[in-house]
Amino acid sequence: MAAIFGGILPRIADYGQAWDLVRALTWAETALVAVVGAVNLGSYALLWAAAVPGLGWWRALMVDQSSTAISNTVPAGFAFGVGTTAAMYHSFGFSPGVITRAVAVTGISNSLVKLAMPALALLGLLLVRDPHPGLAVAAVLGSVLLLVAVAALTAVLTHRRAGAVLAGAAERVAGRIARRRGRSGPSGWVGRTDRFRTDSLELLRTRWVALAGAAVFSHVALFLVLLTCLRTVDGQGADVHWVVVLAVFAVTRLVTIVPITPGALGVAELSYVAGLTAVGVGAAAAGGAVLLFRLLTWFLPVPLGLGAWLLWRRGAGQDREPAAAGAAT
Length: 329
Hints:
The protein is 81% helix and 0% strand. It is mainly alpha-helical. The chain has one domain. It is found in: Cell membrane.
């Protein structure tokens, strides 16, 4: 991160010029950016609400902001974010099975949209200009990964034998590790995987429209923040066609699908700025738009997530009888 922010990005975009463009925003433009940013902050909670029947948007938002704050600031933050999510949902009265299914379904839905976006962006880009070779490579890579992911997901969910084979192999590996540490190995993973499969199929059967719609909406909301920042910051090339901006957005989302740094800090900024300048946006405009975009989407969730976590610690949204509620769920 130090190398990117201290060495690479300054060679592409001057921070002073980028900040001058941000400071030049009018009150109306600032209000527009704030509204679009607020919509984005609440968009991903819709996916959690769809994956956990009975959760509601407010509690989903509280969990989403808390886990995002941890993911954006802690090394290996995604794992700690999942742990925070599980702890908060358990306090709301949801059973471990419901929580695990929700984590899996939301993660799968989010990843499938990320993998599909480069191909969709390439199709749109063919209509307005010649595609960049890098986008074509990303589109092919995303499409291949998407097909592999869909095939694996379909096999696990629709074929009992496939799920049993995967669960059995995982149980054997975990057993070897446990025995080396002087502990007894796990058991019953095949049966629990089969129950997980049938419960997930029922959830997808009844809520697949809401899940797909929420996953797409969350990505559209995030893209609109980037596009709004670029349009309002202004500068050379800031009026580049929105399909071209979507292509840069799609490639960056694919690049950061595995977060090397907390919240992809540094990696995402470099990808966005380099991509925007490559398609004709001025360096200052690209730098200003991306820094404003990341302020709203990476930094702002940190204090908001801290506030949400403190509210949860004070009992907000928690079920006073979690054991009974979990059994009922």
